[in-house]
Amino acid sequence: MKKQQKVLVVAGARPNFMKIAPLMRAFNKKRNKFNVKLVHTGQHYDYTMSESFFQDLGIPTPQIHLEVGSATHAGQTAKIMTAFEEVVIKEKPELLIVVGDVNSTMACSLVASKLGVKVAHVEAGLRSFDRDMPEEINRLVTDAISDYLFVSEPSGLENLKKEGVPKKKIHFAGNVMIDTLLHSKAKIQKSKVLKNLNLKPGTYGVLTLHRPSNVDSKKSLLEIFEILEWVSSKVRLVYAIHPRTKKMIEKFGLKKKFEQLDNIQVTAPLRYVDFLKLVSESKFMLTDSGGIQEETTILKVPCLTMRENTERPVTLTQGTNLLVGRNAREIKRQVNRVLAGKVKRGKTPRFWDGRAAERIVKVLESH
Ligand code: UD1
Fold it and tell me: What's the CA-to-centroid distance between 6 and ligand 1, angstroms?
């Protein structure tokens, strides 16, 4: 009998957790073939940013926790690399699985590849073509050194091909984040978040903002406040504020100004099921997130993305997403359209069907 393959799966920050949940389930079904250990880098550490997701998504407790916490980019990346190197030397895995595009993704894939461990990148090939985004650097580096590149949408295939990645390394597996959304449907339905926040379905928009390009300067925050003032004069906004944005608002002395924005209901970061229930019952989403562009496409909720580009173009061509940047005129136009019921319905992209993680594990099994 062939021995079990030793695998490390890494997760570090909030958007990673929804992506590893279905992978852990799929590996568990094949536990005779794979011996999997989960590593949490501790990039995100607040209960609301991390542990609540493990509970809601039924992710097993990580066997290894690196507890790196927050730091500058180089500081955080270096801390993760140093701590993870010890883990790889001790555990001697044959394969590392990384997901998404956060600092933990890049740091751990660098460590593994230098120690001769094969790397599988889930959500490979996405490109915003904007190297001012830390995530774009993480994506480029991770893909360049990965041995298995699991792609979630057609643009990923094209980008990797153009970058000269050999075809045999690339696998169109679908979207693991959507695996989690579909798997959690019943729980999401049952969430009491609307009642708790005293909201009625279809009467509000949901807001999230955390990209450095939007929140790390006083000028851009002020531009955004002006836009929010107008939007919230038309419709109630529910804002689940990210710790980074909260910190920036305080740093620039804008707390008072922010609190004066009327008709914006601010909450702490929400639990996974609560957040998705809130979005699914909303009129529209206003965001700069990556993953939410995909989730709204499946929930059929119009998504106005406050960015100049997206690494997830299938959400524009097939989904409900529109790029609006910080262009006040365009945002007003699109909000007015949505409120008048003129919405983009979109269709479901290929392989966003709840079975991406199974496809990934199948490929790994056959290699
Ligand atoms: C990270 C990811 C980003 C992802 C986002 C989702 C990178 C480069 N960026 O950005 O791609 O969309 O997570 O949340 O990896 N903080 C807390 N508590 C926490 C975590 C963070 O208070 O649990 C605060 C800290 O002040 C920290 C700041 O948020 O300095 C930023 O956290 P960090 O993980 O560096 O990046 P994010 O902005 O969260």
Answer: 30
